[in-house]
Amino acid sequence: MPWSGSRDYDVDVSHAEAEVESALSELRNKGAKVVFVAGHSQGGVFAMYLARRHKVDGVIAISPGGDVGNDTFQENLENLWRKQGNWWQRERVTRKPDF
Predict the structure, then answer these.
(1) Residue 56 in 3-state DSSP?
(2) Which of 58, 76, 57, 56 minimizes the C-alpha distance to 66?
(3) Tens digits of per-residue pLDDT, 35-57?
(4) Which residues of the chain have pLDDT under 50?
């Protein structure tokens, strides 16, 4: 995958996006019914970006990092959160304690 430990940052965002979309399509063609994107640090931000632009069933963002003060970063996250319908607030409100 682009930007993995063995490849570092060897392609730009558009090429990385195309490569991931190709991998997602290949998984679906092989019968995958549910696909997630995942990333760590900058890859976590990229996973959230991909989820906003492509059909995926979930995102795993591990310690997403980046310039959170950047306007583009904030706009993309805000749109992703709106798309997800504030799921974290619903979970917090409706979840019952385990005890």
Answers:
(1) coil
(2) 76
(3) 999 988 888 888 888 888 888 99
(4) 87-95
Q: Is 96 left (phi over 0), alpha (psi -120 to 50) or beta?
A: beta
Q: What is the pTM of this model?
A: 0.63
Which one-letter amino acid corresponds to residue 3?
W
For the chain, domain boundaries = 13-94
Structure-block tokens of residue 63: 């310690």
User: Whole-angstrom Cα distance, residue 52 to residue 29?
Assistant: 21
**Which of 16, 98, 56 has the alpha carbon at shortest distance from 8?**
16
User: Strand (E) positions, the chain?
Assistant: 36-40, 58-62
Of 69, 50, 34, which is closest to residue 1 (Cα–Cα)? 50
Residues 28, 55 contacting (CB under 8 angstroms): no
> For 18-24, which contacts have Cβ atoms below 8 Å and span 24 or more sequence positions?
20/50, 20/54, 21/50, 21/54, 24/54, 24/56
